[in-house]
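Database export, one record per block. Field names are fixed; values are copied verbatim from the stored entry.
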Amino acid sequence: QVQLVESGGGLVQAGGSLRLSCVASGGTFGSYAMAWFRQAPGKERDFVAAITWSGSLAHYADSVKGRFTISRDNAKNTVYLQMDSLQPEDTAVYYCAARGLGVRRQGSEYDYWGQGTQVAVSS
């Protein structure tokens, strides 16, 4: 069983930056594809970014491409989401997720989820 714990959320002004972290325990982190999703109030959960087990390939939603960067440190069992040029529409609860095979953009394909961290961007 894999446990995921996110941190790094907070309140930031438009144009600012945040870095989210997700620490994994209870599994073989280096064998999992990892992803970030987000859910704004009253909306469905949306894919944000995903990264392969080796970190060699990343995928992004069009809405964040060029502004967000996903990375991982397998020695620290941690995946990161660097968020730059934040906008009010990025306000959401951000979740990290893990699956044992390749990256996917659908949340239903992921086996393990964290509890989420709130990101709020003021205009």
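Remark 1: The chain is about 0% helix and 50% strand.
Remark 2: Residues 69 and 82 are 5 Å apart (CA to CA).
End of record.
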